[in-house]
Amino acid sequence: MPAHSAGFSDEQAGKGLSLADELRAFFLPSGTAQAAALLLQLPSELVTVILSELSTRNLARLSATCRSLRQDTPTPPPLPREIGPVEAELRRRAEARGLDVGSSLPEGATSRVACLLKRDRRNAQIRQTPLAGGFEHSVFVDREGRVLTCGGGDKLILGHNVGPDAPANRKIGPPTLLSSLQDRRIVSVATSARHCLALSAHGEVYSWGGGDFGVLGHGDVGARSVPSKIESLSRVESIATGQNWTSAAVDTAGWLFTWGQASFVDEEDDSHEEEPVVTEGPGGLGYELDAETEYQATPKRVDALSQARVVAVALGWGFTLAVTDTGAVFSFGFSTDGSLGHSSSDSEVLPRRIEALAETGRRFVAVAAGNLHAFALAEGGELYGWGDGRANSHGRHQRTPHRLPIFYHTRIKLVNAGDCSVCAVTETGELYTWVNYNDGDGDDEGSLGHVAKWPHKQPGRVVGLRGVEVAAVSICGSHTLAADVDGVVWAFGRPGTLGLGLSGPLPVVPVQTATPIPTLRVRVLNSP
Predict the structure, then answer these.
(1) Residues 446, 457: contact at Cβ < 8 Å?
(2) What is the value of pTM for the model shown?
């Protein structure tokens, strides 16, 4: 919250934030009551500043511990209902994102604070993820906000300061701390096969890995072996990386920024032709660039969406999906097998609303994109898919979104897509995965968590996670990572990517059953 909006000078606000940092030590199960008692001794204006710096989870703890901070008991008429500090802060966060708080409680609800906490937690859960899987590596955010990496591939992707003499394909067995980010509290990570992004609690974005096409956002095409801050970005809420050389970020004002490869080139090897068929189109940045310009090396705002407030973004193979606060879904970039969700196969340079989703009358809150397939999740838990028929669960190419029949009677809370795989988490935390279509023969790497190796064109529950409530997930072509509500990470797929190699050589046999990483607990957003 800006200092002037609360009536404080910068010096006073700074002191308040310093005190908030000291109070965080109290926000443990044994100390929440102490924190609440201390807050009650402070001026209400200072309490407002402190609450604005707390996570949804800590607000929930305060609310449960101190009724004076919640003030959730209805006031008898004709007196107006009194709003407590916690509710006021949650209302401010919702209104800042353009969300309608409403004047009445949902049917069956008894607590306004509980409803707002659940909504804020769900929105944060969609915006932020504590784990991300690349082709040969994994990235995590632990409970203290520190970043850890493991796996292999390009030595730069692991984010450790390595010299020119380091092996090109360096391998790290257990999740290993990135010392360069120890003094930053990270809340979310994203990765492609080639580069990584990390988002701090203060809205800063850091990038590292390969720098082709300016994908790291620093104004050049140089690689970075350690995380470097993208100076042109601030107050960012969510980040995303594409299947090709693209990146995206959404700030607190709802502006979408993209950067990286400007055009998408698809080479189709046709045995009837002497040379591959080359198709070129827009790369999913969402704005016009000169025909000679191959890339955008710094984050650039998508002005075509400047009148909307973007709340979620996903990057596929040459295309982009964006969700606004009104629940509308836009797509733009290269169109393959109907990946943009429009009735035609035409590519789109600028964002275009997906009308088939608008016609459902539902408000959408999240999107996911793979190589040629895409998904949109409605607020009520309905999941829609389109694009490549091998991955959208419909069995054939779909140029317009259709609801997935298998989830007609199941509410979905999370959806994630890899280059050739998809996963969905139900409201009760059950994980479903399907498809691994690189060779069409099945899941040889074990990345879907199913023991049977035949192709899984329909969502199947990961039986190895029965009894586990999943709170965060990331899936890619080689492996899957799932965190439960306690922050335990369960991993399966290509063995060298999972962080299970604690000593000695890395595992070589695919891990087909969900296995916990014993040394790691990640930052998850539990239900209040």
Answers:
(1) no
(2) 0.79
